[in-house]
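Annotated sample (chain length 500).
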Amino acid sequence: MTNRPTCLSTLPAAWELRDSLQRRDISSQELLTQNLERILELNDALGTFVALDADKALTSAKAYDDAREVSLPTLLGGLPLAWKDLVDVEGFPTRMGSAVTPDAPAPVTHPLVKKVTQAGSFTIGKTAIPEFGLNAYSENDANPPARNPFDPTRTPGGSSGGAAAAVASGMLAVAPGNDGGGSVRIPAAACGLVGLKPSLGIIPEDLLNGFSAGQTPLTDKRGAPRLAVSGPLGRSALDAALLFDAMTGTRGANSHFEVTKTLDPIHATYAPKHAKERPEDAKLLGRDEPLHVAISTDSPFDAALGSQLSPEALTALETGRRLIEQVGCVVVPEKFEYPEDYHQTFRTVWTGGLSEAPLPPEAEPMLTALARDFRESSRAQSEEEKQAAATRLSQMSRGFRETWGRFDVVMTPALAWEPPEIGFFTREDPERDYVLQCLFTPFTSMVNVSGLPAIVVPVTVTKNGLPMAVQLIGRMHSERQLLTLAAAIEAARGPLLFGN
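Output written by the structure step:
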């Protein structure tokens, strides 16, 4: 296959665009114009952007071009970005993918947006999500569904589905997302991208919700692990590393981007500052033995729901195994035992916040069927049941870290099947919808519960011309290792070829 579907990106890599901007080979205004033309061409077909302000973006691009004459280069060099419809950006509405939320512009900008803007970017719009970011697909009752650039009849995943589709289609070079149960990794896998879910707390702005009394807790109010973190989506590990540096404020020779370029995951495990904080890990900086990678198809959903791994997912996992061995890792097939009560425990915690959202009674019928079902079932549970689930999930979090901690990395399939067609989930009753999502994404939410980092990297193309990926789960603060390992896999894999 040599022909590329017309919806797929032909943009240079984000880091190459950044370098071109810094050399003044191209201006931010010229790059933005290309992005806007691509959005105008494809957005009706892909449903990627739910808000766009071209005039404001052009003003920002001109400001970057003017400043480039007198200022030092910035990390991102003046790249256009867009944020999910969950994140506040002053001047844009934050609808959260819902028909019940107001369309008034947000009065303030989230601190993470400010940080990434200061790193050399500007916001052009907001990207599509499912209602309240709850789902593994990006369909809601407020906007047209987001669609997959590889096959617009299929979902791009969720909840960062619009962001992933924007990058895969060339509307953007990279995009930030956030991940509470797989919301960066699922759409990255569905759209042939690299998506990083970082360690809980490595981006301090992720801990601001619930900030009180000078603390940034790693748990929610009931003591359950905090699940949501922010992470980058890119067409390569290097692109993801570049944006992740902007999100973490990392610069210099030890930046994620510079370390990823080495293609040496053995010596990229921990940054020096983390080794100082964790002396027991300092030896890993100078290790010479190969990384030990456990490979597994076990999921904590298996006990309640069974396993439905497709031949495509198993082929991707076997390809990932061969690639990881090719880059010098030792692969250890492993059978993991998970708690049988994970499915119900996770659901109780996952839906708890929605039951407490302050919605007027007249808004309830305007919720999607799944959000309404989540809200009603959570309200039916007692506070004692919710507290017990939070305590149990915290126990599971420690158990996951201990179980996986016997290895440097754990490899799983990224998704159980190819991304299904639009409407596959929503045509079912809410309970079946949720079960299907768990079966589609059986390996992602457990990583959020653990607080550990994970990355997905595409490794194969199916007979339908769709990408399939593997997931790599690392130790705490091992983002450099995961990004570098993903880059080494990409180098061993070579380019993936997609045809019509």
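Annotation: The chain has a mean pLDDT of 93.
Annotation: The first helix runs from residue 14 to 23.
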